[in-house]
Amino acid sequence: MTGIITLYYKNYNLGGLLQAYALQRSVQSMSVECEQLCIWHYRPETYMMRIRNKARRFRAAPLREIGRTAKALENRWGNRSVIADLTERRQRMEEFMHCIPHSEREYGPDNIHECLKKYDAFITGSDQVWNETYVKDPYLGINLLEFVPEHILKIAYAASGIDDALSGSGKMRLNAALASFRSISVRERSALRMLDPGNRERSRSVLDPVFLVDRQHWEKLSSASQMPEETKGGPFAFVYLLGDEKKSRDLARRIAALRGLEITAFIHAQNVFCRWDQNFGDRQVAAYGPADFLRMIKDSSIVITDSFHAVSFSILFETPFFVIERADGDSIHSRITDLLDDTDLRMCMARHRQTEEYFLENPDFSRARQVLKRSKEDSEKFLEEALYPLRRP
Fold first, then answer.
1. CB 241 within 8 A of CB 306
2. Contact present, 257 and 282 (Cβ < 8 Å)
3. pLDDT value at position 326?
4. What is the pTM of this model?
5. C-alpha pair distances (Å), 32 with each of 3, 140, 286, 362, 389
6. Spatial distance between the Cα atoms of 243 and 276, rounded to a whole number of angstroms
7. Most CB within 10 Å of its CB: which of 6, 153, 162, 214?
């Protein structure tokens, strides 16, 4: 049995769940028995941990921590108005989560070594698994497979989360961990320059797992959507924004208005109240799951987003889209611009200074179709070669 470690368990993020689903399905399709490990990467802090961390942040940057506290209080108060919808969203995501083959046990730093009795190989990847900002120790060490002895096969597939912001010590640690991997691949080409020459020479960039699953399968999955038909209305713009900025919503309104489209918005996308989502859009949806997300992208006239996976599925479904860059410190450059450059879709980056004519153009997906076909073949070949020692006869 092969264990897959990704941001899967109790991860109430649409892209995270869909890539976890796709990676397990793709490995299983290559005659390798596998399942996701239940590792709770984002376990809530205990009360004492919150107090200690808050004191540490306040000493380092008092004004920033005061602002952070004020925003948290605003979110907590705002959550009261949407708690029922957020609970329903959580339930839909958990239903999808449980459909992905996974370990019976929950693993963490205290018992992760016990999984070595069950699994004879490990795959780590894809979405943000090596991002030292999102994934803190000791969970980062688990994602780097530091607990796995060198004689056990280790594979990285489309691992993401390393960029120029990686600390010097983080870079050294990453390269030391990768030295014992049989096969290494990253999702972003820009991540390759973070590897030392020895690791870089035997590494490659591959597609996010969602691109390994056929469009027809995603369309079938979207048919399980629980959203009522009237949610869509007539031709509409689907807006899915993770960033917490007013100007992103203003730009989305401008694009939709120029195209004469009403907005259906998935609001409070970070699973907490967002004040800028109040009264945003013609139809607001707060209770949704992965199937609903796929259906909205597939059926919309245009997608307006700052999400990597919303962009990915827009390309898969060949739905026109625009990407709005976040201004909250969560850079999308390495994650999205590599993909847009590879598929010749850089024109889909949206900025306030662009003309009305710019926002009325639709992308040509013909080159993207060719690139993805070739890249999918290359990515599948990498995975098949990496998995060869594990394949059932």
1. yes
2. no
3. 82
4. 0.90
5. 10, 26, 37, 41, 10
6. 10
7. 6
